[in-house]
């Protein structure tokens, strides 16, 4: 299992800090390459949409 910092590095981001809440997390990250931030936002949105669709089909 990857740590948050390892996952961020694989995604082209540098994780500076994080805050774990009871039902979500806040991440403070900086892109290592110019397109990394946009790529990760797109990936996050796609993942959320796919999860919602799976839940609707249950």
Fold and architecture overview:
The protein is built from two helices and two strands, in the order H-E-E-H. It has 58 residues and is α+β, with helices and mostly antiparallel strands. It has one domain (4-56). A hairpin with a 4-residue loop joins strand 1 and strand 2. The N and C termini lie far apart (27 Å). The model has no long low-confidence stretch (mean pLDDT 85).
What's the arrangement of strands in the largest beta sheet? Answer: 1-2
Q: Could you give the order of the helices and strands?
A: HEEH
Termini Cα gap: 27 Å
Helical/strand content category: alpha+beta
Strand % is: 25-35%
What number of domains? 1
**Average pLDDT across residues?**
85
The helix content is: 40-55%
Radius of gyration: 13 Å
Q: Which features characterize this protein?
A:
58 residues; alpha+beta; two-stranded antiparallel ribbon
Summarize, please.
With 58 residues, the chain is α+β, with helices and mostly antiparallel strands. The chain is 48% helix and 26% strand. The chain has one domain (4-56).
Give the arrangement of secondary structure elements.
Layout: H1 4-10, E1 13-20, E2 25-31, H2 36-56
Antiparallel strand pairs: 1-2
């Amino acid at each position: 299992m990857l740590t948050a910092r390892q996952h961020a590095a694989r995604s082209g981001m540098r994780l500076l800090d994080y805050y774990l809440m009871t039902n979500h997390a806040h991440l403070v990250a900086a892109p290592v390459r110019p397109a990394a931030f946009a790529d990760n936002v797109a990936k996050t949105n796609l993942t959320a949409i796919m999860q919602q669709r799976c839940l609707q089909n249950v």
